[in-house]
Design goal:
Mean pLDDT of chain A: 96
Low-confidence stretches of chain A: none
Order of helices and strands of chain B: EEHEEEHHHH
Number of helices of chain A: 21
Helix content of chain A: 25-40%
Largest sheet of chain A: 8 strands, mixed
Number of domains of chain B: 2
CATH topology of the largest domain in chain A: Aldehyde Oxidoreductase, domain 4
Number of strands of chain A: 29
Shape of chain A: globular
Low-confidence stretches of chain B: none
CATH class of the largest domain in chain A: Alpha Beta
Distance between the termini of chain B: 47 Å
Oligomer: heterodimer
CATH superfamily of the largest domain in chain A: Aldehyde oxidase/xanthine dehydrogenase, molybdopterin binding domain
Distance between the termini of chain A: 64 Å
Strand order of the largest sheet of chain B: 2-1-5-3-4
CATH superfamily of the largest domain in chain B: Beta-grasp domain
Strand content of chain A: 15-25%
Largest interface: A-B, 57 and 57 residues
Strand content of chain B: 15-25%
Structural class of chain A: alpha+beta
CATH architecture of the largest domain in chain B: Roll
CATH class of the largest domain in chain B: Alpha Beta
Chain lengths: 805, 162
């Protein structure tokens, strides 16, 4: 077992010094000789037939080197293969990187231009002649599902593109024996994670291969897309520093990688394309607007026997991510509760809005919202305390490892302790006292206490639970590698198999390497960022699904362990000692114990490095020269239920962090404005490798969920025009609205992971919308207000009050 | 049609021909290679392109390069000296006050400007002043703590340099 000199310590960030000095290297900072700049012409209509696109006037503009129109996209590229999220389509629908004969949302790419300068490319866009035949558009799922609605994809014959369900236990029987059934209709709006760096691609088509620098979170998606769309197998995907991802940069970005690469091929020169903010807001991907009809079967004591949910997902104007918000609900389908019976019906409806993509929590904030709103409703209808209703339904400490009815295995946890602790930290009784004092005033106090899980480490076979018939298995479990190397001078470098988007992966991985190898952290550094030709990658090599803690940590720990064995073998030979009697301290291999004449001889990493790379005569027989090790990690406890069983049970993810959140809000009854007075989190993320890094992930994801609940979101006009084109209109919280989030850790190590670690990333974005909803509803209890819809913008809160006053 | 401009950036003088429509941020990034100043929105909302122009905090996406003719500009690259981080930078590093780093240069410049004007800011002042810079990663908690730390570091640093 490794020493724990660095693991568990808030070691100083390895990445931060380059970022604070402006020396980060993001795609837009890169330049290649003869590089051209691209710009995209986008649809001004929400729904229209493309009659003709003529790029000749643009091509004639000096400095313009290539114009790719829909005709060229169709001629020069192929549609993407339907991925796992389009597996539910009734008929296959070819989707190209750009619009071909129709546009289905405002901002859909129609043509792309490469010119000597960005400004020149922008000028050229104005010279592209497009003739549209505008069609009626539809922006609500209710209207889109009507037989009379304009149809986005004629092949489907309607806009309800997928319907399906999952059911576990015996929901009907649970409902039959319930004392009471409570019902509500809930809505969660469209939002996004708005990474500050929009999409960025730089492509170069060299004779030996096509190289793309792209700020993708999932290089595998780009790799496959280039091969599917352009038929190019010799592809290299490089992911330099990435200015935030949060899920936004997983799927939709592939369109732009293909379009940029296509231009680079056509122009015979490198091409850079940088998305701008308004492009990102209109067409960079949103979360689904989700509507839930929820019914809960409960006993008179508040035990929830079963839940039935009808989930309608507004998936916008593309079929490529049809079921992504539905299947992600499998990850936290039972939240923290021991309920055994549940049925979830899903419906994905196409509308003339931006396609949907993952972002912070994807689907899971909706699932948590359903559970936590339900707990509050059960308490209200039965006249019980909402916290006690939650408590009585929690999975109990002694039930871990706990298998949920849909097959997830929660390795460890103590949910009740989190709840207890958050009540102490928020000073619950005191908040109630102050709340009572302010009753009748113009600013009312409210408190919401909720609980949730943060699933981590993806199982690639998850979606087979709803598509057991799919001919092609999307993959299963997970694979990811890492390489660790001791250089000739004794310094240590490592290569991870996945990209990072700011989660301090270089720092965290370096701490593990330093501890396993027994070397000072200052001597360990990352070799660079992701490069598909040299990074040891697999299906889990994605900055998504909370994969890092399971796969990267497992891989880098495994590679360092393998290298440590090599170091000890070589050192034993050099020192003529038994390898089992050697220890490593600060990069020096020392025989254990000391002889009567004091410490015996030792050997440094630098000396070993020199031998390993330069001195064959000193290598032991059979020793592979060099000091480098690569290790590919799969979760050793991926079974049972890595593949779905006959009941559709499958492990959606492998680890389950958990947290209780308490929000205290002040609601101005005159203006509807909500101010978050306190926001307290008690979190179990298993073994913490770098506590300050984990804190940062919690603060950031909580702040996002709070901002979403308070009003951040997209608004469309009835004509399908996006009204929130800027961050200001979109309502992103600033330092003024974001509360000072307080975090306490109560870690329970996971029994099945390398170091006992669990996920820490998007977690706090999952329960925080529900926490704010609970708190606002509590504040407005004197009016009898029920919160069933987000966001709680001042206008909505004011309307809720007015409707009851 | 281009215009001649002459300006000082981080102590060095540059003479360049620019188009009238070229933004200061694009001039800095593309014409003189100072890519530390980032573009997050290009409409003055996110603050990633914050720089100092004649000592005042400016969003370089809201200023044309021709408007900077004759000015003294400081970017994030101009703060550290001979490899040593400026106290504001060091405080942000030590306080884990950044994640992806894309907004960070803007915050560095905004904090620098804030502390130059208000050496002992209250948390309220910090929140008010930094509300023009957006960070999507951190939730601002560690940034605000780091600004308080930077304020105290800066005082002893200033004493040391005078």
């Amino acid at each position: 077992m490794e020493s724990r000199k660095y693991i568990g310590r808030s070691a100083r960030s390895k990445e931060a010094p380059r970022y604070v000095t402006g020396r980060g290297r993001y795609v837009d900072d890169l330049a290649l000789p003869r590089m051209l700049h691209a710009c995209i012409l986008r649809s001004p209509y929400a729904h229209a037939r493309i009659v003709a696109v003529d790029g000749r006037r643009a091509e004639a503009l000096p400095g313009v080197k290539a114009v790719v129109t829909p005709e060229a996209v169709k001629r020069l590229s192929r549609p993407f293969k339907p991925g796992r999220y389009a597996a539910g389509l009734r008929v296959p629908i070819p989707e190209y990187a750009g619009a071909i004969d129709k546009v289905r949302y405002v901002g859909e790419p129609v043509a792309i231009v490469a010119a000597e300068t960005r400004a020149g490319a922008e000028d050229a866009l104005e010279l592209i002649d497009v003739e549209y035949d505008p069609l009626p558009s539809v922006v609500s799922t209710e209207e889109a599902a009507l037989p009379s609605a304009p149809v986005l994809y004629e092949e489907l014959g309607g806009n309800v593109a997928w319907e399906g369900h999952v059911a576990y236990g015996d929901p009907d029987a649970a409902f039959a024996r319930a004392d009471r059934i409570v019902r509500q209709h809930l809505t969660m709006h469209r939002y996004s994670s708005t990474p500050l760096e929009p999409f960025a691609c730089l492509a170069e088509a060299a004779p030996e291969r096509l190289t793309i620098w792209c700020n993708s979170q999932s290089p595998d998606v780009i790799y496959e897309a280039l091969s599917e769309a352009l038929g190019i197998d010799a592809v290299r995907v490089i992911v330099p520093d990435v200015g935030g991802g949060f899920g936004q940069k997983i799927h939709l970005i592939r369109k732009y990688a293909v379009l940029t690469a296509l231009l680079a091929v056509e122009a015979g020169r490198p091409v850079k394309w940088i998305e701008d903010r308004s492009e990102h807001m209109t067409a960079g991907g949103h979360s689904c607007e989700q509507e839930f009809d929820v019914e809960a079967a409960v006993t008179a004591e508040g035990e929830v026997l079963g839940l039935k949910i009808r989930d309608t997902d507004d998936v916008g104007g593309s079929v490529s991510t049809l079921t992504i918000h539905f299947t992600n609900k499998l990850n936290n389908l039972f939240n923290t509760y021991k309920v055994q019976h549940l049925r979830l019906d899903g419906r994905s409806v196409l509308t003339n809005k931006c396609p949907v993509v993952p972002n912070r929590g994807i689907g899971k904030p909706g699932m948590c919202f359903v559970w936590e709103r339900t707990m509050d409703l059960v308490a209200r209808e039965l006249g019980l305390d909402a916290i006690e209703v939650r408590r009585s339904n929690l999975v109990r400490k002694e039930q871990f490892p706990y298998t949920t009815p849909n097959g997830n295995i929660h390795g460890s946890g103590d949910y009740e302790a989190l709840l207890d602790r958050v009540l102490v930290n928020v000073e619950y009784a005191e908040v109630r006292r102050r709340q009572a004092e302010r009753r009748g005033g113009s600013t009312l106090l409210g408190i919401g206490v909720v609980i949730g899980v943060e699933p981590g480490g993806r199982n690639a076979a998850r979606d087979m639970a709803i598509f057991p018939q799919s001919a092609q298995m999307p993959g299963s479990g997970g694979v990811e590698g890492a390489t660790v190397k001791i250089e000739k001078n004794g310094s240590v470098v490592f290569t991870l198999g996945s990209p990072s988007c700011g989660q301090s992966h270089e720092t965290t991985a370096a701490q593990i390497v330093a501890d396993v190898l027994g070397v000072a952290l200052e001597r360990v550094s990352a070799a660079g960022t992701f490069d598909s030709v040299s990074s040891p990658w697999g299906i889990s090599s994605s900055n998504s699904g909370n994969n890092f803690h399971l796969y990267d940590v497992g891989a880098v720990h495994g590679a360092a362990t393998r290298l440590r064995d090599k170091v000890l073998t070589l050192a034993a030979s050099v020192l003529r000692a038994d390898p089992s009697l050697l220890r490593i301290e600060d990069g020096v291999v020392i025989p254990r114990g000391t002889g009567p004449r004091g410490p015996v001889e030792s050997v440094t990493f630098a000396e070993l490095g020199k031998i390993a790379y330069t001195n064959q005569a000193l290598l032991p027989p059979g020793f592979e020269p060099g000091l480098q090790a690569t290790y590919y990690h799969s979760h050793p406890h991926a079974d049972p239920l890595m593949l779905p069983d006959m009941q559709g049970r499958v492990r959606a993810q492998y680890t389950f962090s958990s947290a209780a959140h308490a929000a205290v809000v002040e609601v101005d009854v005159e203006t509807g404005r909500v101010r978050v007075v306190r926001y307290v989190i008690v979190s179990d993320n298993g073994t913490l490798i770098n506590p300050a890094v984990v804190d940062g992930q919690i603060y950031g994801s909580a702040a996002h969920g709070i901002s979403v609940a308070l009003g951040e979101g997209f608004v469309y006009g009835a004509d399908g025009q996006l009204l929130t084109l800027t961050l200001l209109d979109y309502g992103k919280s600033t330092t003024l609205e974001t509360p000072r989030i307080e975090v306490e850790h109560c870690p329970v190590p996971d029994p099945f992971t390398t170091l006992g670690q669990k996920a820490a990333g998007e977690g706090a974005a999952i329960p925080s919308p529900a926490a704010i909803a609970s708190a606002v509803e509590d504040a407005l209890a004197p009016f009898g207000v029920e919160v069933r819809e987000l966001p709680l913008s001042p206008e909505r809160v004011w309307e809720l009050i007015r409707a009851r006053a | 049609m281009t215009h001649s401009i002459r300006l000082t950036v981080n102590g060095e003088t540059y003479e360049r021909e620019v188009e009238a429509r070229t933004l200061l941020v694009h001039f800095l990034r593309e014409q003189i290679g100072l890519t530390g100043t980032h573009v997050g929105c290009v409409v003055g909302e996110c603050g990633a392109c914050s720089v100092l122009v004649n000592g005042a905090l400016v969003k370089a996406c809201l200023m044309l390069a021709v408007q900077a003719d004759g000015c003294e500009v400081t970017t994030v690259e101009g703060l550290s000296t001979r490899g040593a981080l400026h106290p504001v930078q060091q405080a942000l590093v030590d306080g884990f006050a950044l994640q992806c780093g894309f907004c960070t240069p803007g915050f560095v410049m905004a904090v620098h400007a804030l502390l130059a004007r208000t050496p002992d800011p209250t948390e309220e002042q910090i929140r008010e002043e930094l509300s023009s810079n957006l960070c999507m990663c951190t939730g601002y908690v560690q940034i605000i703590e780091a600004v308080k730390d930077a304020a105290s570091r800066l005082k002893s640093w200033n004493r040391g340099s005078t």
